[in-house]
Amino acid sequence: MTSTRTTVSTRMTMTDARRPLHLAVLVGVSTGTYAIALAGVTALQSASDAAIAADRAPYELAADRLAAGHDRVEAALEDAGRDYDLLASSYDGLAPRLVDMETSLQGLGDRAIRLSDSIGSLPSRVSVPRMPTIRSAPAPAKVSKPATHGTTGASG
Amino acid sequence: MASPLRLRACGVPPAAAARAWSAVLDEFEASEAAMSRFRDTSELTTLNRAAATGRPVHVGRRLERAVIAAERARRVTDGRFEPRVLRDLERLGYPGGVALPGAAAPARDGRSDAVVCRAGPGALVVEDPIDLGGIGKGLALRWAADRVIGAGVGRFLLEAGGDLVARGRSPEGGPWLVGIEDPAGDPDPLAVIVVEDGAVATSSVRVHAWVVDGRPVHHLLDPATGAPAEPGLLAVTVAGRDPAWAEVWSKSLFLAGRNDIAGEARRRGLAAWWVTTDGSLEMTPAARVRTAWERDDH
To answer: In this complex, do B6 and A150 lie within 8 Å of one another by their Cβ atoms?
Structure first.
């Protein structure tokens, strides 16, 4: 019995003495493995993120351009609206003048009618004084050929 | 151009007149070397030989200016003035020109608008051979007149084969008086006109007319048909500021024909005289005021 105990005790003692080293190795290996795995996962994640970002870049650019286009359209619409308001106010100012012009035209029409009536009352024939009769025009003086300095004609 | 030259200068010493005459001869020789189609060695002959090959030809300033002026004249006259009638002239047997390779007349329908293309500074390409006869003489007169003035002569009459330039007053102190030749051959002019600081040019069929296959032809061709202009006119004279443009308008009005010449000349505001085939002399209002004398019998 004693001997058995001793043996057991001895084995237990040897086991207890080696346990810390194994644990340390185990912990170290586990930690390293975890770190490597973490680094790998992180690298994969980073690459995946970069790929996703690269894939999204054209769409983001297009979205930016679309937004800029919308801004321009909005600004143009604002300008058009402002122009419309200006035109509307101009027309408001023009409308009374159109009325005045219509009144003037009406007056002009009335005067034209009165003038037409006056023309109708004019005599159809008017006698004019007799014109003196010209018997004959004076004959132009005969011009003799002047001396020339050169001649224009066919080239020889 | 082969035109007889005559310079009448007044109001200057003989030495100045001699210098001016020398300048005229020099200018016409240089213009012939550039623009004559009768010279085998002229720049124009070299350009025409390269026609349709697409090969650019380097030319001097005179020929470049002349081709550009001809191109502009074609545009301004709505195509009545056309320098690309050389093949038609050859086909009709116009004598004296340098023989060119290829004899077929160009197709009129597919012809491009441009008479000439520029292939760089001073380098030209032509599609069809060109004739600068009339406008070339007018330009040579213009440049020669400038050189006469440059030689210190301010009063002169310079004649080149029926075209002329007058500057200043005549020796008698009045304007220069120029006779319009009778194309029927009478030595007396049909009319005498006044030229004050201007130019006069005449297009006539009196000299360059010949017979082909029994039918009379002349050198004033209608670009639309390639044939001589319709009968009805014998000569057209135009007065203006510049001899080259007077030459362009005289030819363009001749091609307008007897029925249209009066309307065309008045529409353009030209001082123009024309002689019809029945021998009558007609003129525009602008020409009437420049006419000092008319012969009675026409």
So the answer is: yes
**Alpha-helical segments (H) within chain B:** 14-35, 43-49, 61-76, 86-91, 133-150, 243-268, 285-288
Name which of B36, B293, B294, B295 to mutate to probe chain A: the one with the most chain A Cβ atoms within 10 A of its Cβ.
B293
Render the burial of B120-139: b for 16+ CB within 10 Å, e for the rest: eeeebbbbbbbbbbbbbbbb
Contacts of A148 by beta carbon, 8 Å cutoff, 6+ apart: B177, B178, B179, B189, B192
Q: Which of B102, B69, B110, B73 minimizes the C-alpha distance to B86?
A: B102
What pLDDT band is residue B120 in, cutting at 50, 70 and 90?
Answer: confident
How many Cβ contacts (< 8 angstroms) between chains A and B?
A: 83
Three-class SS of residue B212? strand
How far apart CA B270 and CA B54 sit, in angstroms, is 39
Please give the helix or strand (H or E) that residue B231 lies within, else none: none
**What ipTM does the predicted assembly reach?**
0.81
Q: Do B188 and A146 touch (CB under 8 A)?
A: no
pLDDT-based confidence at residue A82 (cuts at 50, 70, 90):
confident
Q: Does B205 touch chain A (CB under 8 A)?
A: yes
Across the interface, whether the CB atoms of A151 and B208 are under 8 A apart is answered no
Q: What's the gap in Å between the CA of B242 and the closest CA on chain A?
A: 15
- List, in sequence order, every residue forming a beta bridge with B124; answer none if it has no partner: B57, B118
Domains of chain B, CATH where assigned: 43-131 (1.10.3980.10), 175-294 (3.10.520.10)
One-letter amino acid for residue B209 of the chain: A
DSSP state letter for B56:
-
Q: Which helix (H) or strand (E) holds B161?
A: none
Encode pLDDT of B36-63 as tens digits: 988 999 999 999 999 878 889 999 999 9
Write the CA distances from A145 to B177, B189, B202, integer angstroms: 11, 9, 21
| Tokens read off for B16 | 């100045």
B215-272 residue pLDDT tens: 777 778 788 777 787 879 999 999 999 999 999 999 999 999 999 999 999 999 999 9
B229 touches chain A (CB under 8 A): no
Gap between the Cα atoms of A46 and A39, Å rounded: 10
Shortest Cα–Cα distance, A137 to chain B (Å):
20
Which residues from B are below 8 Å from A145, CB to CB? 188-189, 192, 293, 295
**Are B293 and A153 an interchain contact pair (Cβ–Cβ within 8 Å)?**
no
Reported as a single tens digit per residue, the pLDDT across B265-286 is 999 999 999 999 999 999 999 9
